[in-house]
Specification:
By secondary structure, the protein is mainly beta. Helix content is about 15%, strand content about 40%. It is built from two helices and eight strands.
């Protein structure tokens, strides 16, 4: 893999009302998608899964790839993986450690994030 190339992701889960919430990183300038540098010996997908394993108390086998799209952040094009949780009974808030800067947000809260990330082919997330 190419050195210093990044990959990003979010995980979506349903809240108690059946609305989607998205895993994001809480930063001083707003929310950002979880991002990591692609490891030299791994693919982009393997690198982001490793990041998820290190950040969340979740069995990654419970994640399903929902969408893969491209994003442009700070003039760099990076893959953006969107995962969904298979386990609808998952207590999504419990998979975060207390000292984590990760949080779950509804799509309405991500408006500024999406403005900072130029995303192609944004998937539509609707209640079933």
């Amino acid at each position: 893999m190419l050195e210093n190339h990044s990959v990003a992701c979010t995980v979506m889960a349903k809240d108690t009302d059946g609305d989607y919430v998205f895993l994001v990183e809480d930063q001083p300038k707003g929310f950002s998608f979880l991002k990591t540098v692609i490891s030299r010996d791994k693919t982009g997908l393997a690198s982001i899964i490793e990041k998820i394993k290190n950040e969340l108390a979740i069995d990654v086998a419970e994640l399903e790839l929902f969408e893969l799209t491209n994003a442009v952040v700070e003039k760099a094009r990076i893959p953006l993986f969107v995962f969904s949780c298979r386990d609808e009974g998952l207590h999504y808030k419990e998979v975060l450690s207390s000292d984590s800067n990760l949080t779950w947000q509804h799509s309405e809260s991500l408006t500024n994030t999406l403005k900072q990330w130029e995303i192609s082919g944004v998937p539509q997330f609707q209640k079933e």
